[in-house]
Amino acid sequence: MTDTPHSLGRKYPGGGRHGRAIGPSDNGDGEAAPPPAGRRADHGETGKPKYWVLGLLFLFCFAVTIMSEAAGTGTISTSFVKTLGKTLCLCLAAIAMDVVWGYTGILSLGHMAFFGLGGYMIGQWLMYARTEAIVLENLASQPIPATPQEIQNAIGSQIFGVVGSSDLPPIWGFAHSLTLQLALVVLVPGLLALVFGWLAFRSRVTGVYLSILTQAMTLALSLYLFQNDSGLRGNNGLSGLQNIPGHEQTSQAVISLAFFWASALAFAAGYLLFSWIVSGKMGSVIRGIRDNESRVRFLGYPVEGFKLFVFTLTAVVCGLAGALYYPQAGIINPAEIAPIASIYLAVWVAIGGRGRLYGAAIGAAFVSLLSSWFTGGGAPPLDLGFYRILWTDWWLVLLGLSFVLVTLFAPKGIGGLFDFLVRKPEADREGDYGPDAGSRRAEEGPEDEEART
Amino acid sequence: MRLLKILAALLLLPAAVLAQDVQSVLQTHAEEAASPSRRSVGVLLADISASGAPETATFLERYRDREVWQRLSDGRFYYAEDTGDRTYTLIDIDTGAATEGVSADDLEQIRPNGGVQREIAGALVAFQLSDPDISRRRTAVEAIARSPSEDHLAPLRASVDTEPDPALKARKEQLADLLAATYGDTPEERIAAIEDLTGSLSVEVRAALNRILATEAGVATDLPEANIARVLEPGRDLTEAAAYGILVSEGLAQANPTDAEIYTALTQNIDGGTVAGVPVALLGDPAERLRAYDALAEAGAVPRRIPPEAIAGAVTSHVFFESYLEPDEAITDAARRVLSGIQTRVGLGQVADRTLDGLSLMSIYFLAAIGLAITFGVMGVINMAHGEFIMMGAYTGYVVQLFVPDYTLSLAIALPLAFVVTFGAGVALERSVIRFLYHRPLETLLATFGISIALQQLAKNIFGTQARPLTSPDWLAGAWAVNDVIQISYIRIAIFVLALIFLALLLFLLNRTRLGLEVRAVTQNPGMAASMGIDPDRINMLTFGLGSGIAGIAGVAIGLYAQVTSEMGSSYIVQSFMTVVVGGVGNVWGTLAGASLIGGLQKGIEWFNPSNTLAAQTYMVIFIILFIQFRPKGIVALKGRAAGD
């Protein structure tokens, strides 16, 4: 896609393959600025699948398989394979976040809550099934076989003894069935997003307000889960999730590799799905919503419907990513759902570069791996002579400041570097939210009044 | 009422005449003192109490505790200490002078019996109740309140009239009523005492009334002649199983084997892979278990199960009731009446107490959020680092206390200093980061989040992870207690006052000063304000500094009652956001309304479930999400062109 259309006819392309179906945003003086010549080229955000991303991913997966303990030389440890698998899940959540934020302009501070909910749903089955196996084994040594009620009670007290209860709450009603819990992985985050999004978009809450509202939702959810009587073990969370029922004899090395591949496939599928969504006609509409919501509405598009669809779909994908993540992490507790987690997700996407899917994935992988390297004590201390910088103490300071710098000076994030590589022209959007030149504008003006209220 | 007479006699005698020492009084009644009897000891006790000797209380205590000995050779009384080898050291009662090496043969221990001991104790309390030293009187009254007994009633009543201190007198009267309610001689006296307690909110009054109203569960075939509190209907007031349980525990019915007992019986009777003919493998089915158990019972190996009809029959043929331990119906009626009146007032008091709690929470939210509201209103940017400015203010207070040990003075320094520090930090943040992002409000959110995590970690690196104390001055310690139900700590009152001061200051600043005019102009229309000669850059900078400075002061206030940690800011930030969003942007009253709504709501929800503040917060957030549906721009929304869209 290196065509450079100069004709006015291509300025409002019906197919909207160029992401500017709505037309250029004005500068607030009511005068539509003609698009600068030579800037109409395709760039990252039209989101045509970048097959080289998938190619790289599979090369990477084969490399990891060859070096893993289970199927290869054992160069890298099982725990590192798990870390890589978890990182792929985070990348999947990050591209979902990119679609909802970078493409649609909804800065959701709740997508990690959906991620955690997915984890909780799969965790219920993992924990129930494993506890059931243990309980059956224990009861088998009894002189007479146990009644179903006794088995239920034993499972209940095994799981809930830690919060001083012994009854299985009703929300564990589906926990015996993997199929039903898998359905819940999709349904629970999806329905929550649907109801919340419907309420929020219907009342035209936008911009910063919407961010705070999603943050409030996340806070409410995590506070609810922190309660011991929430039915999900309060702040103990669900644990022992790395043991897969029915595969007790399988070594963790094999399980970790299987989950790594599953995460990679999920990421690939998610990448293709989102690429398809943002590259088509719909992609043009949602980018239009990001750049100027009122204008899209006036053109007759059902803005709320588009937003709701994107919000719900990304929530479902986040839930699935969480369902793959937490069996690898082994434990989930309400702290994982706290608002800060969702803010970090936004941070990854911003550092990676909004408005291009591979950028978000790179950001998530880069920051989360770097973060675990620094906080895990992997980074050597920096000796300044008068002060020794221990990175476990100073990493967050560094991350915070570098995030400010990225926001200020590199709004395109890491993904922006690719523009230098392939000599892509500069992005031509001048809207309010995107990785644009807005921060470098000199003049004050009422251009973004809507965003300011 | 012997003691009453004693005390009356005591009070009638002029004090000057009474300047006698204990020994001489004892010598006057030597025979009584040596072998006291319950009937006759009163005169001796009266005279001793009347003597006015400083040693009286000590003597009475030791007399009661059988530590007083008489020397047979001269008939005088002493305290004695065993020095072994059948010799004692005698200590003079009045002077404390010791005489060593007195043979046991010359001594006799005085052993007041139980009845006499009670008389002495009564005299002792009476003595302390009329002690000239008010603190000793108070101690005596509190001693009675702690362990009330029948003996205390008369001396307490006797001491009421002569009590000079009005507060203590009221206390004594109430205590006398409390004692009389339980220990009064006649039902009339007790009822009168109970009715005197009407309207008292104290915990001990409620406890005493509840003691009078104590009940015990009972069961009989017919309702007995007793002071019945209520009759329990099986099926409505208690389940049939519970009713049958009562019958079993009273020995009126035979126990039905529980599941666990059935299980044990079955395991004990396994016979070659079967239990009473039922194969063990089938026993996973509850019905099969019962069949096997019944077969065992048939064979006489275990007690039979009681059929449901028999249980129902046993339950219906008995009446279950609760009866008062107190037999007199008139007394329990009076107590119930008074107690229900008290409980109504306690309920009202609790509402008032909650309201005060809500007010204090509201003022905290107001202080935490008002700075945010100003910056958000004027600049349309949200400052995620606001919570860290709160933390910065609190740490400023902590550092000041390290250098200035006087807490009042350090607080006086810390408040303005916190403002200066956070004002500076706010201006620096605005100049270095935020002004470049005015056109991208969402990115401000993220950039300030970066600042927030950096500042948080920086505070952790400097001050460590453990909580640091910010001690309040003595005059802010303690709580203002209206009565036993309504009380609020002085710190919370101080925070409330602080919030009021800031409300007034901000209203003045925004509505009556040039700066306020310019701020309002920029809030409503920055472009127009700029063309009128107002420098929006300067206004933005000052407003941001002002908002941050208030956050710093809020930090000192919050630090006084909560602990200072590097994470304290983040626990207020989301609430602050919600306060701003609910209240509406760019208006001090809006923030006040938002803070009232959120603070009041949180306390209101806690009212229903006081033990669970997490649930209260959850429901509050859900309520706010729904609230935004109806007022997307908050309670106080800017209207018309000022609204910006």
UniProtKB/TrEMBL annotation, chain B:
GO terms for molecular function: transmembrane transporter activity. The keyword rRNA processing does not apply. Its main location: membrane. CDD domains: TM_PBP1_LivH_like. Residues 1-19 form the signal peptide. Keywords: Amino-acid transport, Cell membrane, Membrane, Signal, Transmembrane, Transmembrane helix, Transport. GO terms for cellular component: plasma membrane. The keyword Cell membrane applies. GO terms for biological process: amino acid transport. It is a multi-pass membrane protein. Belongs to the binding-protein-dependent transport system permease family. LivHM subfamily. This is Urea ABC transporter permease subunit UrtB. It comes from Histidinibacterium lentulum. The lineage of its organism: Bacteria, Pseudomonadati, Pseudomonadota, Alphaproteobacteria, Rhodobacterales.
